[in-house]
Write a sequence for this structure.
């Protein structure tokens, strides 16, 4: 496994690989502090791509004022061990100056899909994501890029960007990995106190309740799902709901009772103290 810090170096190595091999380049973009969720993306890439490229970059552009950019967890040594064990070939770890050498004047903005959920509660977040992912896609020029469904809105936004900008990249959505008790794995779980960690279980539990409810109530309304999730989360005294919504996926459009889209998402963001966690459930609905 090779580790590179400069864009020029990364490009040279990828070009060299492409010259010698007639195989695809797979790309896994991350912000580091790797866990089994990230590892699952790398393993998936390993099975589908000839060259597996991982990027580790905490992108300042996608953090709002007062968010956790400065204190976002970092552990390069452990990240590199996990990346190597999972089969990464090339790790790109640029500095902020390498990615943004001058004040940024060109950004990528995906409209519509970003008006709800995390787009509404983190204004500017998806412009930061679309801009950095677009830059990374131009630098790496992958055939496939692997993203986790824990960030389901992010996948919808990236897929739209790829379609609108005619990028020749296959976006591969990968399932959310969970801790044994159900909590979705996240780099930010490390912020949780012992009490918060226990109470954070209400998130995955509330989504399990939605699964059961839908099976016995095939003509559910979005309001019923939101109410079910919100009331269960409210049993945790340390939880503050940022949003709970039930929408079509990947359109992220609201739906009316009796007119379910083929696929719906129940998505939530909840704060425990300063720590904001997200989770979701995507369900194929029988018509
Ligand atoms: N539990 C998980 N299972 C599968 N993929 C995941 C999981 N958590 C994150 N990912 C994916 O890993 C990629 C990099 O995400 P990122 O580095 O932001 O990790 P993260 O754990 O989601 O961090 P945070 O929750 O702090 O945003 C994204 O495509 C993300 O969807
Ligand atoms: C895709 C990404 C690496 C862009 O910074 C980030 O949003 C993430 O880790 O999900
Ligand atoms: N996984 C999304 C990155 C962020 O929260 O900024």
């Amino acid at each position: 496994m090779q580790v590179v810090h400069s864009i020029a170096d990364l490009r040279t190595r990828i070009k060299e690989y492409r010259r010698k091999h007639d195989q695809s380049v797979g790309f896994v973009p991350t912000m580091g502090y790797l866990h089994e969720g990230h590892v699952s993306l790398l393993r998936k890439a390993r099975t589908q791509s000839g060259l597996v490229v991982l990027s580790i970059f905490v992108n300042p552009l996608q953090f709002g004022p007062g968010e956790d950019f400065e204190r976002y967890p970092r552990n390069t040594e452990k990240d590199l061990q996990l990346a190597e064990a999972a089969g990464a070939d090339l790790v790109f770890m640029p500095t902020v100056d390498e990615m943004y050498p001058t004040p940024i004047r060109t950004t990528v903005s995906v409209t519509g899909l970003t008006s709800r959920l995390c787009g509404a509660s983190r204004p500017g977040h998806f412009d930061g994501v679309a801009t950095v992912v677009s830059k990374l896609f131009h630098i790496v020029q992958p055939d496939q890029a692997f993203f986790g469904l824990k960030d389901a809105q992010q996948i919808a936004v990236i897929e739209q960007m790829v379609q609108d900008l005619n990028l020749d990249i296959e976006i591969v959505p990968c399932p959310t990995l969970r801790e044994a008790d159900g909590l979705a794995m996240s780099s930010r779980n490390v912020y949780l106190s012992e009490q918060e960690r226990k109470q954070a279980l209400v998130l995955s539990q509330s989504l399990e309740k939605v699964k059961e409810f839908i099976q016995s109530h095939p003509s559910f309304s979005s309001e019923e799902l939101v109410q079910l999730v919100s009331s269960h989360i409210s049993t945790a005294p340390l939880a503050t709901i940022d949003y709970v919504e039930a929408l079509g996926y990947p359109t992220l459009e609201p739906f009316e009772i009796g007119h379910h889209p083929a696929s719906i998402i129940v998505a939530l963001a909840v704060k425990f103290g300063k720590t904001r966690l997200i989770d979701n459930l995507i369900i194929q609905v029988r018509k």
Observations:
- The mean pLDDT is 97.
- DSSP finds ten helices and nine strands in the chain.
- The chain has two domains: 2-174, 187-279.
- Residues 30-31, 37-38, 40-41, 147-148, 150-151, 174, 176-177, 184-188 surround adenosine-5'-triphosphate (ligand 1) (CB under 6 Å).
